[in-house]
Amino acid sequence: MDMSKGRTQLRWLSALIMLALVMPVLPSSPANAQAGSRLFPETGKTVKGKFLVYWDTHGGLAQQGFPISEEIQEKSETDGKTYTVQYFERAVFEMHPENPAPNDVLLSLLGNFLYKKKYTSNAPGQQVNTDLIFQDFRETSKRVGGKFLQYWRTHGGLAQQGFPISEEFTEVSPLDGKPYRVQYFERAVFELHPEFKGTPNEVLLSQLGRFRFDEVYKPGGQPTPGGTQPTPTTRPGNPTPPPAATNTPAPANPCADVPPSQNMLIGVVENNTITRLSNCERAGTTFAFLGDGFQPGESIGVYFTAPDQSVYGAPFQVEADAEGFSEGVTLSTTPGLTPGIYAASMEGTTTHRKAIGYFKVLKP
Questions:
Q1: DSSP secondary-structure letter at 67?
Q2: What per-residue string of b and e applies to 50-69 under the rule 16 or more CB within 10 Å gives b?
Q3: Average pLDDT, whole number, for the chain?
Q4: What DSSP character marks residue 247?
Q5: Cα angle: 218, vertex 223, 227; to 5 degrees
Q6: Whole-angstrom Cα distance, residue 200 to residue 157?
Q7: Which is it for strands 82-87 and 92-95: parallel, antiparallel or unpaired?
Q8: Distance CA 106, CA 245 (A)
Q9: 142 three-state secondary structure
Q10: 323, 295 in Cβ contact below 8 A?
Q11: Local structure of residue 132 (DSSP, 8 states)
Q12: Residue 225 burial by CB count (10 A; 0-12/13-18/19+): exposed, middle or buried?
């Protein structure tokens, strides 16, 4: 993936904003047409209401991950009460109608659950952070410093991450089998990724929601023996069988499943010029991305999410121009790139304004 700046190209694309505003808005699916809900084609799950508002306002894809379940009723291991919950790759949202906003949506203590399961007493090899900038937490007698402290303070703090429950240590990731420097918090596990040094992805979150979901459920959504027994909001039963094979031709429009972008326009670069708006093209295309609504002069972190949920950080931060638009960002796809729906994400380092654009790469 080759990303480069193109201020002239970006200015041409920004002139297309008026064109985008007058184009008819056609819902790509009933879920997208319904206010207050969103279908995520990457996992086939829908997020709605207060859970959707929380997802949008608390880091979105990078912080929470994609939804991997619908809403269900589940008994909490923390207080033994039953709540409406929804699983995401990196978190589990709990509905607490007894609390006034913004505390009516809370996150399950996934970090606590996993830490107690993996380490009966304490994780071995823990080391207290020795950075000059640190914070001691008297509540748990743990210290957070350096990159982890910076991430904790800028990504929701206590409400989103919880208190630290370990010092830093090295742990092998179950996702890729590689060792990473980690620190456990009540609601998250921070991973240090030096390969992304200097980018917004230098600290990433473990996929605690997926780990927990896979532990509790078998494929098809049935409870694992010995696991927590959640009660579905709909009547339980056997999984609906797939429809019988027919001779019905495939949909004529392979781009119909691309979700709508938020605060971002996507164009196509041809002969060093942005020629049109498009978020669905064959591999080998160069896409251009324009985020808007940032503070003039603000630095903006950029990263991409692939169909397999792997995240790639840009080797630089772009800068918002005098009108609050991101400087030019382009992405050149190769003919051999894995087909599927990708996501381009931008976040302002000062305002934390977020822009996300979905685009689909088709087979060559």
A1: B
A2: bbbebbeebbbbbbbbbbbb
A3: 77
A4: -
A5: 105
A6: 16
A7: antiparallel
A8: 42
A9: strand
A10: no
A11: S
A12: exposed
Residue where the block lists tokens 């989103």: 160
pLDDT of residue 26: 28
Rounded Cα distance, 205 and 207, in Å? 6
| pTM as predicted | 0.51
Q: Is 80 exposed, middle or buried (0-12, 13-18, 19+ CB in 10 A)?
A: exposed
* Contacts with 46 (C-beta within 8 Å, 6 or more apart), sequence order: 31, 37, 38, 39, 40, 67, 70
Type and span of the H or E element at 61? helix 60-64
For tokens 């509540």, the residue is: 139
Sheet order of strands, 72-75 included? 105-107, 92-95, 82-87, 72-75, 231-232
CA distance 300 to 314: 11
CA distances from 85 to 103, 209, 213, 258 (A): 14, 12, 12, 26
- What letter would DSSP give residue 197? T
Q: How confident is the model at residue 16 (pLDDT cuts 50, 70, 90)?
A: very low
- CB-hemisphere CA count at 13 Å for 343? 24
Assign residue 202 a region (left: φ > 0; alpha: ψ between -120 and 50; beta: otherwise). alpha
Q: In angstroms, rounded to a whole number, what is the distance separating the alpha carbons of residues 213 and 84? A: 15
Q: Which amino acid is at 347?
A: E
DSSP string of 281-333? EETTPEEEEEE-SPPTT-EEEEEEE-TTS-EEE-SS-EEB-TTSPBPPEEEE-
Give the Cβ contact number of residue 342 at 10 Å.
Answer: 24
| Closest C-alpha among 307, 230, 314, 278 to residue 19 | 278
Question: Tell me, what's the pLDDT at 247?
Answer: 53
